[in-house]
């Protein structure tokens, strides 16, 4: 693919077509939060559970890639905007030291910290994928994480993960539908030419 001759809008459209607006990441996020919710029934120690949250974040990216392979979605596009998306997603690696400090200082805040900081890195995809869903998701995730991870901190390990798993699943479904609709429009436009 010759990306050099493509306009910015062409690059976005190509990435939406290839990457399906990144919805496999939301399937992986759904699984992560469901696993964290489930672990709450088996691990009594909140500090050990918080450690599982922390270590578990490393599973989301590989799981998303595996899901994308099964669903035949190209999340590793060479499209320059895909590379930019990878860099934006990689920002989360810099959150790890913050999460570790929070774990050491007050592990009860780990679910909130993962939720709020995790939400923040999704905002640029609003522009990349031409989807207001990313904006709604980011704001909703940050609010839910703050309310159920800080204000109602006693419920952080119970309510927050189930609420976020539902939010991730709904977002995956909406992005999948948006992608499907986008591809249909693109195919109609190609046939009309």
Automatic annotation (TrEMBL):
Record keyword Membrane present: yes
Residue ranges crossing the lipid bilayer per the database entry: 21-42, 48-71, 83-104, 110-127, 134-153, 159-176
Record key words, sorted: Membrane, Transmembrane, Transmembrane helix
Annotated InterPro entries: DUF7010
UniProt cross-references to Pfam families, sorted A to Z: DUF7010
Key word Transmembrane present: yes
Domain of life: Bacteria
Protein name: DUF308 domain-containing protein
């Amino acid at each position: 693919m010759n990306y050099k001759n493509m306009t910015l809008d062409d690059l976005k459209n190509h990435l939406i077509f290839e990457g399906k607006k990144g919805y496999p990441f939301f399937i992986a996020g759904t699984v992560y939060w469901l696993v964290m919710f489930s672990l709450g029934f088996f691990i009594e120690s909140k500090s050990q559970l918080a450690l599982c949250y922390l270590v578990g974040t490393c599973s989301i990216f590989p799981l998303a890639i595996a899901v994308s392979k099964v669903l035949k979605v190209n999340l590793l596009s060479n499209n320059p905007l895909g590379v930019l998306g990878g860099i934006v997603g990689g920002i989360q690696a810099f959150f790890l030291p913050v999460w570790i400090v929070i774990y050491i200082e007050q592990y009860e805040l780990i679910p909130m910290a993962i939720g709020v900081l995790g939400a923040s890195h999704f905002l640029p995809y609003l522009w990349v994928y031409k989807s207001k869903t990313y904006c709604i998701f980011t704001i909703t995730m940050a609010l839910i994480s703050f309310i159920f991870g800080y204000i109602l901190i006693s419920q952080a390990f119970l309510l927050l993960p189930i609420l976020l798993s539902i939010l991730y699943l709904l977002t995956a479904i909406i992005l999948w539908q948006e992608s499907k609709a986008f591809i249909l429009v693109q195919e109609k436009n190609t046939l009309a030419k």
